[in-house]
Design goal:
Length: 198
């Protein structure tokens, strides 16, 4: 097994493991992070939720391209991506990148949206209790993605968006697919364009 394959296996296991930890913590705290996921429903409904998730990733991808194409802005973010994130994915195949992206979408969304946001929304038990729940989950999401301050802030904004999606659809599949699709396309885009002269 090459070092790239080892990284892919570790990354996949870590990201998927976040979902498993969220499910176990949910049992401990009495909140099922998968409460809105019904895999027994018709396939057409699951496909529709998946398509909504892919469509919901488009504004995030547009935002990434806009950030990437602004010379002199978000320099710290771009440097962190180029020096820390992209080298991890350089030798990986499309299949490996897609598996890691899928695991990140599933694991992180079960944890941050399903467990943290869903649990806090139930705990606040108020018509607007979802709002602080979205904000708390997004801030924790941003902190967990902190390579530098700019990266953490942008991750928090993405977390707010994914949390809003979850609230609006009451459907965890939508932010899962949006997150996974965004990660996959973003990695491919940045591998190709990150070193482009500004």
């Amino acid at each position: 097994m090459t070092s790239d394959q080892k990284f892919a296996a570790v990354a996949f296991t870590f990201e998927a493991g976040l979902g498993l930890i969220a499910i176990l913590l949910g049992r401990w705290f009495g909140h099922d992070p998968l409460a809105t996921v019904d895999l027994g429903r018709p396939l057409s409904e699951l496909l529709t939720a998946g398509l909504w998730g892919m469509a919901a990733a488009l504004p995030l991808l547009l935002g990434l391209v806009l950030v990437d194409r602004q010379p002199g802005l978000f320099v710290e973010f771009k440097q962190s991506v180029a020096k820390v994130v992209l080298p991890l994915f350089d030798g990986l195949s499309l299949v490996e990148i897609s598996l890691i992206s899928a695991a990140a979408g599933v694991g992180e969304e079960i944890l941050f949206r399903g467990l943290v946001q869903g649990g806090l929304t139930a705990w606040f038990d108020h018509p607007v209790g979802w709002l602080p729940a979205v904000l708390v989950a997004a801030i924790v999401f941003g902190i967990c993605h902190r390579l530098n301050t700019t990266y953490a802030v942008l991750a928090t904004v993405i977390g707010v968006y994914l949390g809003w999606l979850f609230h609006q659809t009451n459907e965890l599949v939508v932010p899962i697919v949006a997150h996974a699709f965004y990660d996959f396309v973003a990695i491919l885009y940045l591998r190709r364009h990150a070193d482009r002269p500004s």
